[in-house]
Specification:
Number of strands: 8
Number of domains: 1
Distance between the termini: 27 Å
CATH class: Alpha Beta
CATH architecture: Alpha-Beta Complex
């Protein structure tokens, strides 16, 4: 947000937000529904059509092994039978497969991460985040409810505020209402943007859609809590 005299002014509305197809809210806010525990299950996704995976996932896997957490790296060679039935039920399996076969790796990753978070919950981390964590996970984030990283720059996407979160780091219980709403929105939003020949992943399946699906209560990990490198994103908790 920009400041003008004593009033806060929202950034201009992003025109693409008017095209978003967002599922209606079907789960009312309740403490039990929004604040379930996050399982200590870490997962990352890397489709290596463009280049081999780097060393970061190995370090996250080592971190999880040290603390007894489950870790999974999903690639184009993974067995997706565990999630296929759920994705078919959500009308996402064919969209996921099509994205993989047409090398739309960002779209495929966006669809898969939300489907896995819905089914299992856990902690999703982009592969270009370096692992500098040493202590148990609860020293770094709240282990109930859903948590996102806040982008440094506010964006107006038609919500009541200009908060804009990333989907590059999401910690969530299974079947969290916000994740469920994103999953329900994905097929319709992909169809809506196909009509405009728009395949921008950050709009169609990524952060812009996620932000329009926010409601109720969610935890924010501030941008300032992390060290970033825009070419090799570097995440390190302060303190």
């Amino acid at each position: 947000m920009d400041r003008l005299d004593n009033d806060w002014v929202f950034p201009h509305l992003d025109y693409r937000s008017r095209l978003l197809s967002v599922a209606p809210i079907t789960e009312k806010f309740t403490v039990d529904g929004f604040f379930k525990d996050v399982p200590p299950r870490f997962f990352q996704i890397w489709f290596s059509f463009l280049r081999p995976v780097d060393e970061n996932p190995n370090k996250w896997e080592a971190y999880c092994k040290t603390h007894g957490y489950r870790y999974t790296l999903y690639t184009e060679h993974s067995d997706y039978s565990e999630i296929e039935e759920d994705m078919c039920r959500d009308n996402l399996w064919n969209l996921f497969q099509d994205a993989l076969h047409t090398f739309q790796v960002l779209r495929a990753s966006d669809i898969l991460r939300m489907s896995l978070l819905k089914k299992y919950g856990g902690i999703y981390i982009d592969c270009d985040f370096k692992c500098d964590w040493t202590g148990p996970v609860y020293e770094y984030l709240r282990m109930n409810g859903i948590s996102f990283i806040l982008e440094r720059i506010g964006r107006n996407v038609g919500q009541d505020n200009a908060i804009f979160v990333c989907n590059s780091f999401v910690a969530s219980p299974p079947n969290h209402p916000i994740v469920n709403r994103v999953v329900r929105s994905l097929p319709g939003n992909i169809e809506a943007f196909e009509k405009h020949n728009n395949k921008e992943c950050w709009v169609v399946t990524g952060p812009m859609l996620v932000n329009r699906c926010l409601y109720g209560s969610y935890n924010i990990l501030p941008f300032e809590s992390f060290k970033w490198n825009h070419f090799d994103l570097h995440m390190k908790m302060n303190g």
